[in-house]
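U., I forgot to send this yesterday:
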Amino acid sequence: MNNTAPKLTNEQYEKNFADIHPAFTQNQAVTEANRCLYCFDSPCMKACPTHIDISTFIKKIATGNVKGSAKTILASNWIALTCAKACPVDVLCEGACVYNDRGEEPIKIGRLQRYAIDWYFEHGMPALFTPAPKNGKSVGVIGAGPSGLACAAELALLGYDVTIYEGKDVAGGLDTWGIAPYKMTYKDSLNEVKLVQSFGVTIKTGMWIGKNLTIAELEKKHDAIFIGVGLGKSPSLKIPGEDLKGVVDALDFIASVTPRKWSTVDVGHRVAVIGAGNTAIDAATEAKRLGAEQVTIVYRRGENDMSAYDFEYELAKNDGILFHFHTAPQRIIGNGTVEALECVKMRLRNPVAKGKQSLEPVPKSEFQIPVDMIIKAIGQDANENFLEQIGGMEFVDGNVAVNTETMRTANPKYFAGGDCINGGKEVVNAAADGKKAAHGIDTFIFNKR
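Result:
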């Protein structure tokens, strides 16, 4: 890429991508755990999609039983380290903490959960759970992301032979490839993969269903199948110049950063990120921390319409990211490579109406932002080309339709969870879906009801 930002020293990279929420020491963890009121109704537990028994795991930390704390957490959530580090805890468990009602700092539930699960991995994953005897049944899982891993782990403990088929060469899904390194490391995700494998789950990487293994062969091999394929690529911007060198997909950019080989990642001097969700924020802050001189987020709606969480927005502002709100890209300018992004200001069609409204360009408001790299972060499309190959599937707004109690699809042999059913939520939602689907599969195979 032309006009790339200068490389930093390894020390600068490590400083820029250092953990934004450092791990608790033992004394810090015990002190924080002792602040917990151990509420009878545990609103934090209700706010967690996996319903971890939060008061109990915190109590165990307070009494020095860290192993027992880890067991309590993992009993509800097999992707607990990712959730501890990357979940929006301020709008989930910590957001429900009763201390908020008293105007006090909520319990640092995420950091306490990390403390317990870090301890578990650092101590070699001591055995905490005993799988049930083999039941002679087999389940195939498509996708080794959080929902697939959670489903596989739960099924293995129920006595199933489980094989995960993952297209990429490394398992973990977005937990491995799609989370900024200052939130969690590549190694954290791979530790969770090892945990699932420790239950006897087989993971076959580089396996694309429909290419390396047909759907008919998959159905013949397994008694039931779980789909955890996530979403696909970002949709097209549908503007001229999108094919110029220097236009990249946000998830591809983030994936190039997560292995922590900083000096191998090219980033422009001046970068524009199109979109204002959490992925857009990650891409923008990573570009800045890699050495980009200026990073700008371009969003066609207003500040209050951003899908990014407040803490993500604050992180970006603290990193010096610029924001152009009510601004839409019109065309990308360049001779072979990106040189500028032409934008137009936007306004509401009916400013006095309530709710989310359609927008229209402001006449003669065009302007250009000089850039040499553009990152697309406008969401992801569903993997419909693959999913439609499976007979009997039904879709709602492009997502796989499921029974929300069992996670069963319209094809009775298939179950699904994660982003492919919800259009893109949090990793904790995927973990909850996978576990629920495992029990739905168990009920289906053995006709328990």
